[in-house]
Amino acid sequence: MYNRVMYKKIKTDKECLMENGTIFNPIATLADEYGGRVQVDIDDHCYVLKIRLDHGKYRMTPYIFREVFDVLTSLEPPK
Predict the structure, then answer these.
(1) Fewest 10 Å CB contacts: which of 38, 39, 51, 59?
(2) Which is it for strands 58-61 and 46-52: parallel, antiparallel or unpaired?
(3) In the predicted model, is pLDDT for residue 2 greater than 80?
(4) The model's pTM
(5) What are the residue ranges spanned by the domains of the chain?
Protein backbone atom coordinates (compact mmCIF):
# COMPACT_ATOMS: atom_id res chain seq x y z
CA MET A 1 0.00 0.00 0.00
CA TYR A 2 1.22 3.47 -0.89
CA ASN A 3 1.28 5.59 2.28
CA ARG A 4 3.43 8.56 1.38
CA VAL A 5 2.15 12.07 2.10
CA MET A 6 2.22 14.10 -1.09
CA TYR A 7 0.80 17.47 -0.09
CA LYS A 8 1.70 19.44 3.02
CA LYS A 9 0.08 22.54 4.48
CA ILE A 10 2.28 25.59 4.01
CA LYS A 11 1.94 29.33 4.58
CA THR A 12 -1.29 30.44 2.90
CA ASP A 13 -0.90 32.32 -0.39
CA LYS A 14 -2.33 35.85 -0.33
CA GLU A 15 -4.10 35.67 -3.69
CA CYS A 16 -4.39 33.35 -6.67
CA LEU A 17 -5.66 33.58 -10.23
CA MET A 18 -8.37 31.36 -11.70
CA GLU A 19 -8.43 30.30 -15.37
CA ASN A 20 -11.22 32.79 -16.04
CA GLY A 21 -9.16 35.70 -14.67
CA THR A 22 -10.88 35.92 -11.28
CA ILE A 23 -8.62 36.55 -8.30
CA PHE A 24 -9.38 34.77 -5.03
CA ASN A 25 -7.92 34.82 -1.52
CA PRO A 26 -7.49 31.28 -0.18
CA ILE A 27 -7.78 30.37 3.49
CA ALA A 28 -5.29 27.47 3.30
CA THR A 29 -2.58 26.32 0.89
CA LEU A 30 -1.08 22.88 0.36
CA ALA A 31 1.96 22.10 -1.80
CA ASP A 32 3.81 18.99 -2.88
CA GLU A 33 7.48 18.45 -3.65
CA TYR A 34 6.88 18.59 -7.42
CA GLY A 35 5.37 22.08 -7.57
CA GLY A 36 1.75 21.01 -7.22
CA ARG A 37 -0.44 23.38 -5.26
CA VAL A 38 -3.98 23.21 -3.90
CA GLN A 39 -5.92 26.09 -2.36
CA VAL A 40 -8.84 25.89 0.05
CA ASP A 41 -11.29 28.73 -0.50
CA ILE A 42 -14.80 29.64 0.67
CA ASP A 43 -17.66 30.13 -1.77
CA ASP A 44 -21.28 30.64 -0.61
CA HIS A 45 -20.36 29.53 2.94
CA CYS A 46 -18.82 26.26 1.67
CA TYR A 47 -15.24 25.10 1.40
CA VAL A 48 -14.09 24.63 -2.18
CA LEU A 49 -10.82 23.26 -3.53
CA LYS A 50 -8.84 24.76 -6.36
CA ILE A 51 -5.83 23.09 -7.94
CA ARG A 52 -3.04 24.80 -9.85
CA LEU A 53 -2.65 23.75 -13.46
CA ASP A 54 0.56 23.63 -15.51
CA HIS A 55 0.13 27.24 -16.71
CA GLY A 56 -0.05 28.50 -13.10
CA LYS A 57 -3.74 29.36 -12.93
CA TYR A 58 -6.29 27.50 -10.82
CA ARG A 59 -9.36 25.41 -11.54
CA MET A 60 -11.98 23.97 -9.18
CA THR A 61 -11.46 20.30 -8.35
CA PRO A 62 -13.98 17.84 -6.89
CA TYR A 63 -11.26 15.64 -5.41
CA ILE A 64 -10.69 15.60 -1.65
CA PHE A 65 -7.56 13.62 -0.91
CA ARG A 66 -6.29 12.64 2.53
CA GLU A 67 -4.02 15.64 3.11
CA VAL A 68 -6.76 18.11 2.15
CA PHE A 69 -9.25 16.29 4.36
CA ASP A 70 -6.87 16.64 7.31
CA VAL A 71 -6.57 20.39 6.71
CA LEU A 72 -10.34 20.81 6.25
CA THR A 73 -11.05 19.12 9.60
CA SER A 74 -8.70 21.58 11.32
CA LEU A 75 -10.44 24.72 9.99
CA GLU A 76 -13.15 26.76 11.65
CA PRO A 77 -16.58 26.47 9.98
CA PRO A 78 -17.03 28.91 7.09
CA LYS A 79 -18.93 32.11 7.86
Answers:
(1) 59
(2) antiparallel
(3) no
(4) 0.89
(5) 8-74
